[in-house]
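Take our chain:
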Amino acid sequence: MTKRKQFSSVFKREAVRLLDTSKKQPSDLARELGVRRNQLYKWKDQLSRRGKQAFPGQGRRLESSDEVTRLREELERVKEERDILKKAATYFAKELK
């Protein structure tokens, strides 16, 4: 028997926000988030019924998850790309003068 996944209330709220605002299909969004499509709809229903009282549990701790590691790596990559773009912008700005 596999252990049931637990998600933080912040994750659930953000997933519902993405469900409402994203142009992606719910099944695609669910796949990207690592949840079932019907779970997104359940969270949306809970949030609409309970508002701020929705998702009172602790959820999982993100510090120990692979997701945090992936996000940190992605952040480092984005910072490197930002630095490269800054250098390129400075170079081309000098060329225009």
